[in-house]
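S1.2 Input.
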Amino acid sequence: MVAGRAGIAADEREALYARSAVFRICYNTDISHIVSKTMSTAQSIVVSMRLPAESGRRLKRMASRHGWTASDASARLVEEGLRRAEFAFIDFRDSAAGRQAYVQGSTLAVWEVALLLRTYKGDGAAVARHLGWPEAKVRAADHYAEAFSAEIAEALSDNDAVDLKALKRMLPQAREFVAKRPKSLRRP
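S1.3 Output.
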């Protein structure tokens, strides 16, 4: 038995990996440990990194605030950074529903733009006019929604599950109203 970097014998580590593909070695600022992967069921790889002490403390505070491990928080932040780099106009923010992809410079989550696109039958130009945005922002949200369709479908499903009756239980002052379609969007 040869001791591995994580303080676990190499054959024990291999046995863990053999039992489950969702284990990975994670490093925090103090110790190395093995944790189960909670972000997704995809296989993961080991990436070791050093953080300045203050960054490590900030990471731990963020993880604690969300109920994550420091390892999960760092994996999420790396994933979000990669998505930001790959998709124009996309940012990530905390919301009541957890961290979500948003369109930069707006208060709309990507799934909300996807909902508008569904309402306008995929007409990105009409959604852009509706929002007063450049069409490129709507297309960016649509491209993100296509790439991460399961994530967006889940948010849309959660939204669809809330009807007026459920909303009134949460917000007793809620009332139903029907908005009139602006003349510019009416069909001739």
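S1.4 Remarks. The helical segments are 10-19, 53-66, 70-86, 110-119, 124-131, 135-147, 149-160, 164-170.
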